[in-house]
What we know:
The complex is a heterodimer of chains A (238) and B (257). Chain A has 238 residues and is an alpha/beta fold. Chain A has helices spanning 48-54, 77-83, 91-94, 100-110, 115-128, 144-156, 174-186, 198-204, 222-227, 229-234, and strands at residues 7-17, 23-33, 37-41, 62-67, 70-71, 84-87, 162-166, 190-195, 207-212, 215-220. In chain A, strand 7 (162-166), helix 7 and strand 8 form a beta-alpha-beta unit. In chain A, helix 4 packs across helix 5 (115-128). Chain B is an all-alpha fold and 257 residues long. In chain B, a hairpin with a 2-residue loop joins strand 1 (99-101) and strand 2. The chains are: A alpha/beta (238), B mainly alpha (257). At the A-B interface, helix 2, helix 3 and helix 4 of A face helix 8, helix 9 and helix 10 of B.
Amino acid sequence: MEFPLNDAIEIEKLTYSYPDGRVALDNVSFNVSRGETVGIIGSNGAGKTTLLLHLPGILQGSGNLKIAGYEMNSKNLKNIRKAVGLVFQEPDDQLFMPTVFDDIAFAPLQFGREPEEIHKIVHEVLRKVGLSGFEERLAHHLSFGEKKRVAIAVALAMNPEILVFDEPTSNLDPHARKELIVLIKGLNNTKVIAGHDMEMIKETCTKVIVVNKGKVAAEGTPAEIFSNKVLLETNMLI
Amino acid sequence: MDHHLLEKYNTLESTIHKLDPRTKILFSLLYVLTVVFTVPGDIVKLGALLLVIVSVIIMAKIPLIYVFKRSLVIFPFVFIIAMFLPFFSVADGSGFIELKVLGLNLSRKGLYIFWNSLFKAWFAIMAMILLSSTTSFPLMLKGLALLKVPFILIMILSFMYRYIFVLIDKAQKLNRAVKLRHFSLNNFKQIKIIANMIGLLFIMTYEKGERIYQSMVSRGFEGNIKLMDRLKIKAVDIVFSVVVLTVLLFINLWSFL
Ligand SMILES: Nc1ncnc2c1ncn2[C@@H]1O[C@H](COP(=O)(O)OP(=O)(O)OP(=O)(O)O)[C@@H](O)[C@H]1O
Ligand SMILES: [Mg+2]
């Protein structure tokens, strides 16, 4: 095998078009090593969300994907979904159960965990995101920032190797944004973070991938990417 | 919208709030059944049943006046359904006119049935208000699920509860956007805009549904949802059940004693 064994995500020539014919991803290839935090930046409609939805196999384009050591195929799908925790951009899309407890317990239940274990998991992930004691709170009574945190707790519930964030800081007030960045930095999973918030990407990521119109336009360290004004401008990032 | 109307007294601390939702659902049903099987003329039994509901409301620390006010919503429904009953002699089918009030012909039997449906609906709605003000919606759903209500129904109610406020929010935003741009509209234009808004809301909910489905799939959903049973019957449930069952039995058997 030519791939290095320690890669958490390996994507080779991924192409995807939506049913209406729009090509959203065009020949995308990149790797993410274990423990690395990768930022994906690109203008509106560049294909970031589409790319992220491929990681837990929600969307399936053509090309080769290997996630947490599993080839992407229907046989491995369950293991891949256990290994990938996806945090949606809009917490109201992600949190669909009436109470915080039920939402966090959802994934562990579907994957067959025992009730006592589930209580422990819920308690533990709520502590991790700084919301201890929120078990019985109703989702529609939470503030936006709290919903974001619960969404992260939900993604952490299966103790995934890879955490995927879609614009984690959008719509947050400056204080909540700062706290969320601290929270994300404190998690030591392999992370993939998509966003427009350059400061946040700069602060959290060890590698940055620029996407434009479904293609990878550049890849490099944050220092390389953010100092290259021409690159940022041609990709409509500033 | 005011979401607190539904949940206003859900977080009070009282013996009744502490009861298992199953206990509350079953006893509400039992109470309604007892009411339904009461003969309209049995004033003693009616009084006893009123006493039961009022004492449980007091135990739940819910203001009586609140329950009473909310129970008034049932009257228009009963009136519409039962309005014409007094003018017919339904029960014996003869159409025999027995009373004359203000020049109107009323039938005694019809009035009797009218009064019967009125108080039964009123007692039943009070029991339902009591149940919904002492049990949060998620707990109610858990209770219903454990009482073997079909799962699909529980999930539909659960999603409805979760997203109704999100949807109302969206609708209000759309409405505001329309109002900002159009000051004076004739009726025809207004209808056109409302039709557009409904269409837009439909698309929005459709897309939201798609994303919620993606969220479910990424969390291991494979076609049927597993739920967790976190409810336990406690001592207070047993005590409450024994007491209320005895009282209801006594009320029901009173006339035979
Ligand atoms: N369900 C869909 N059906 C058809 N086309 C879609 C769908 N979702 C997205 N697209 C299109 O695919 C392209 C990529 O969209 P995507 O949502 O991945 O972009 P993005 O980088 O996440 O943008 P944003 O920063 O606005 O979130 C866009 O041109 C978009 O219009
Ligand atoms: Mg997006």
